């Protein structure tokens, strides 16, 4: 069942969306994506499905690779991201990747509870390749 879920998630949607799998030892452990792509911007997303994969730098490495692709070959000028306020690990990842908090978005469901969403922003000039 979980494998089927990940395969569905990995399928992506449309030309304004890019999703790449994060693999380890030949198995899919997560993904990183760019959504709402235009010629100059996109929205960054990342997920590691197995908690055993958390806290070991995998998300940071995958995120840096996706952002290098966004600001390099894709030629984007800026990338946005949104994180649920209680998700401390994701906030830390955003900071490690160079994102700066840029305000608050609409509240959203997170683990069954409606919570604030923090917006982040990163420009090509601020990104460290």
From TrEMBL:
GO MF entries: acyltransferase activity, transferring groups other than amino-acyl groups
Record's signal peptide: none
InterPro entries: Acyl_CoA_acyltransferase, GNAT_dom
Pfam families: Acetyltransf_3
Residue ranges annotated for the N-acetyltransferase domain, each copy included: 1-125
The protein's name in its UniProt record: N-acetyltransferase domain-containing protein
Organism the protein comes from: Deinococcus gobiensis (strain DSM 21396 / JCM 16679 / CGMCC 1.7299 / I-0)
């Amino acid at each position: 069942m979980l494998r089927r879920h990940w395969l569905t998630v990995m399928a992506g949607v449309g030309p304004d969306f890019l999703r790449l799998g994060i693999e380890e030892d030949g198995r899919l452990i997560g993904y990183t994506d760019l959504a709402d792509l235009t010629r100059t911007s996109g929205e960054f997303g990342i997920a590691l499905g197995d908690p055993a994969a958390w806290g070991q730098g995998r998300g940071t490495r995958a995120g840096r690779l996706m952002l290098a692709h966004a600001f390099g070959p894709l030629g984007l000028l800026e990338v946005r991201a949104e994180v649920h306020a209680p998700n401390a690990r994701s906030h830390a990842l955003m900071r490690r990747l160079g994102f700066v908090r840029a305000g608050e978005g609409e509240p959203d469901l997170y683990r069954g509870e409606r919570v604030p969403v923090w917006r982040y922003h990163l420009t090509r000039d601020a990104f460290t390749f």
